[in-house]
Amino acid sequence: MKHVFGVMSAAAEKIPTSFPLEKKWFYTIAVGGLALLTAAGAKVAVPLPGTPVPATLQTLPVLLAGLLLGSRIGALSQVVYLTLGLAGLPVFALPGAGPAYLLGPTGGYLLGFVAAAWITGALAPPSPGRGLLRRFAAVIVGIAAIHAAGVLWLALLFAPDTFDAFRVGSLPFIAFDLAKGILACAAAAGATFARSALWTSRSTD
After folding, report:
1. Is-contact 93 106, C-beta < 8 A?
2. How many CA atoms lie within 13 A of 192 on its CB side?
3. Domain for residue 11, yes or no?
4. By residue range, what is the domain housing residue 52?
5. Considering the domain boundaries, does residue 9 fall inside one?
6. Distance (Å) of CA 189 to CA 83, 107, 153
7. CA dihedral 72, 76, 78, 80 (to 10 degrees)
8. Residue at 186 is within a domain
9. How does DSSP classify residue 105?
10. Of 161, 143, 141, 172, nearest in space to 54 by CA
11. What are φ and ψ of residue 46, in 5° steps?
């Protein structure tokens, strides 16, 4: 029996040291994956009348980044996305790439993606115990951060005043972004629970 207990103790001592590496791989893949999802969401772009800003699916992966990865790593995924575009890759919603793209009408929203992922992750860190209401409140603030950054950018560079910037840069997208926020909350709840169950089951093997 002493030999059996010794084997079990040795195995138990090895488990904690293996998890950090697995988590590093998970976060590395997740950061790249969410950056690519944001790029894919940009390609689902629907022009709307009366505004230079298209409707896209990008808000969904941005919010998911914060809910699934937390504030810092979630924001990092959006920094990676921006870096790809600034490096010249065609990952943005409108034609063009490189640093000059930020001077276009969607430049403020792109910067807002980083802030939104950080804010969402800070208000509702990834945990199976987080309630849907807390996640939804977090995504509301995240959506507000995206809209605020976009509207301020439009007001500075394109619109004659802040009200016009809000009319063309926020109002047409509120309902659509709220729907994406609900989807992000549901997806994050399921993914967080599944990830926690996977790591828990592996730690008890």
Report:
1. yes
2. 24
3. no
4. 31-203
5. no
6. 29, 30, 33
7. 180
8. yes
9. T
10. 172
11. -115, 110
Q: What one-letter code names the amino acid at 153? A: W
Q: 180 near 146, Cβ under 8 Å? A: no
CATH number at residue 186: 1.10.1760.20
Query: H or E element: which one contains 160?
Result: none
Cα(136)–Cα(134) distance, integer angstroms: 5
| Residues counted in the chain | 205
Beta bridge partners of 55: 46
Q: What is the pLDDT of residues 3-44, one digit of tens each?
A: 443 433 333 334 333 445 567 788 899 999 999 999 999 999
Own/partner pairs, 95-104, CB within 8 angstroms, 24+ separation: 103/157
Query: 3 lies in a domain?
Result: no
Parts of the chain with a pLDDT under 70 = 1-22, 128-130, 192-205
H or E segment at 102?
none
Can you count the helices (H) and strands (E) in the chain? 7, 0
Residue with tokens 């810092």: 72
Domain count, the chain: 1
Place of tokens 């995504």: 139
Type of residue numbered 21: L
